[in-house]
Sequence to fold (536 residues):
Amino acid sequence: MRGVVACPQPWAAEVGAQVMEAGGNAFDAALATAFMQWVWDPFMCGPGGMGVAQVWHAPTRQHKVVEFNARAGSKVRPEMWAGAATSRTEVSHLFVFDDWRNELGHTSVMVPTSVAGLAEIHKRWATMPWAELLQPAIRQARAGVPVHPTMLDWFHMPTPPGQPTALQRIKATPECARIFLRKDGSLPSFGEMLPMGSMADTLDALARQGPDEFYSGGFAKAMADDIQRHGGFVTLDDLKGYKPRLHEPLTAAYREWRISTVRPPHAGFTALQLFKLVEPFELSRQRHGSADHLHILAAAMSLAHRDRLEHNADPEFGPVPVEKVLDGARIRRQQQAIRDWSASTAAGGAEAGHTTNVCAADEQGNFVAITHTLGWASGAVTPGLGFVYNNSMNLADPRPGRPNTIAPGKARASNMVPTLAFRGDVPFMAAGALGGAVIISAVFQTMTNILDFGMSPTEAVSAPRAHCEGGRVFLEARTRSDVADALERRGHVVQRDPFPFNPIMARAQVVLRRPDGAFDAGSDPRAGGGGVVFAA
Fold:
């Protein structure tokens, strides 16, 4: 077997597997998959988005993080929105403006970085031509995309207070409405075909002219002119000057394994903190889903997410105290707090997000996990280009003097955590997820389900899940009521939602290679799912 690809979209995973069967490696497969994801989930990801990847290149033993987070345009100012926000949302603590300036339209857009990030991966580790990897996505865009269940869910999902609906997002610009709505302005139904011709033209030009065209050629001028004309902050010089960052991963031991993840402004340190917090409690000795097990998880998540909310930011603009958060003495004090738990005092909620992920592994021993996103999708579309821009300004703090205060060139704090697990000095598992801050909880629980409970990847991504950011403990309906009651008696505030598989729990994807060389993978059934394809 040549390898395996896991992602939420079966159509995209199939393309990745076919690339491996044609002689490509895991990086070729992941890139072709990501390009197809741009077409199949245009509100989750696309050329107007951002992301982060963790890679292990077996032939050279290179282990890197490719950071391509969105960055604020040079025309922003720290004080420009000071005092204008009317409130913050209960869910995800976003700042709310009466005109949704940070959520919708061109004022919500940061520099789109996905093309540069994927191009960096291609330049360093892929083996097949850039143009060839784009061809399946181009053909699909030419044919159009049917409204599928995941897209339909996004159209009609309940909207948290203070957030615009999907219809309002799509109507944010006339070009977005033209592509994605019926002529009468209503949302399309299941199976209706969406015209993606403009996207096909964009991808075709990227294939023929190369990724640099996106940042310095005709694309860049069209994007900058459109954003500037509508009051946005990204300039042509911002596009020309953007480069992805390469980092060494952040690592920590967990039992006999080594966990490797991404550095700030992404929340990998929060994932490592969770592993360290639960380590002495020996999860393998707990009954999965019991009150004892969920108490340990919920208390650890509460403590770790509080630290994330307080500290995570762009390290290029100020220190992020990762070493302090992961300090052994501090971790031991927090472990004692878990033992002595009585009540949670900080507010917190589950955060929905419009993101996607792909994990791939191959017979050479290569592993790659890419998480890429539009944030929540701005609804801004430049006429003729066919893709939606990110709305990363919605995570910028309009209050001057804060860790995440908006500034020119500053990256937004991110909850994306593509993560690898190593046995000895080589990786055997890659995991990632989509779904806002709940990504961290989903990746952590998926990996502990495999490492501590011996689950298969499919069992691990499908098992009942919990989430807590310092306030309520969110549980799925499959968690027993007596377990929820027991957690309440231990001082937790519990919300047991009516969903057996709750999409708000984030959607985890995982691939692994067993000691005998066999591949396995799991794709979360909570939304989409089924996107596991093996390359023969």
